[in-house]
Amino acid sequence: MLGSGQWGQEETRELIFIRGELERDFTAAKHNKTLWEIVSARMKDRGYTRTPDQCKSKWKNLLNRYKGKETSDPENGCQFPFFEELHAVFTERAKTMQRRLLEPEAGSSSTQAKKKVKRTTTERSSDEFSEGEDEDESEEEKPARGTSRKRKKSDSTVVDKSPRPNSGTRTGLQEMLREFFDQQLRMEMQWREMMEKRAQERQLFEQEWQQWMEKLERERLMVEKAWREREEEMRRREESRAERRDSLLTTLLNKLINDNN
């Protein structure tokens, strides 16, 4: 299936599903370019031919609609059809971030674990708002890592004597997570309110429909009753006419018999 046209709903859901799978594989999602090449390859395995740039562009469009809370169209009340799928992806992301904060890697010092979690949280939070901002990150990290190793080698004594980070780093991480969870909670509440509103509208529509059907049923019964009454009246008239005819014939016969006698 060529990918030159618009994205269909099934194709879009496949993209979200694949992106959600890679969300759980943090190592595969580190480098943006590699990530979208993997997404493109998996889309091709499922019968959809899309380039990495097309997948990335579509994902950014979905993120913009999701973070912009465009869950409904005020003109016609249509719901954003992929809200629940994206909401599930970001809920899983929040759980992963929390696990990485509470369970540092074995063998790492507390300070190193906090720094790593902070870097991870920042990268993942940035990824929520834009998937394209860290394309050049891998190129920038190479000279940065080389410079960092040289600095550590030449200034090891200074590093050993430098003060350790205080509790402000952990407080900042907790505040960042709290804001993220608050945002997720607000969006979930808005989604629930929208679902409740739609349920109320559906219930109101069903009540109006039921009332209308009951009204039609009453009208049908009234018409049927009137028709039966009319039929009964016609039957009574026919019987009365037949009785008068029989009575007249009887009278005429009696008169003829009397005249003959």
Automatic annotation (TrEMBL):
CDD domains: GT1 (cd12203). Residues 156-172 have a biased composition (Polar residues). Residues 101-174 are annotated as: Disordered. Residues 1-63 form the Myb-like domain. Keywords: DNA-binding, Nucleus, Transcription, Transcription regulation. GO terms for molecular function: DNA binding. Residues 128-140 have a biased composition (Acidic residues). SUPFAM superfamilies: Homeodomain-like. InterPro entries: Homeodomain-like_sf (IPR009057), Myb_DNA-bind_4 (IPR044822), Myb_dom (IPR017930), SANT/Myb (IPR001005). Residues 34-67 form the HTH myb-type domain. One of its GO terms (biological process) is regulation of DNA-templated transcription. It is found in: Nucleus. PROSITE patterns: HTH_MYB, MYB_LIKE. GO terms for cellular component: nucleus. This is Trihelix transcription factor GT-3b. It comes from Gossypium hirsutum (Upland cotton).
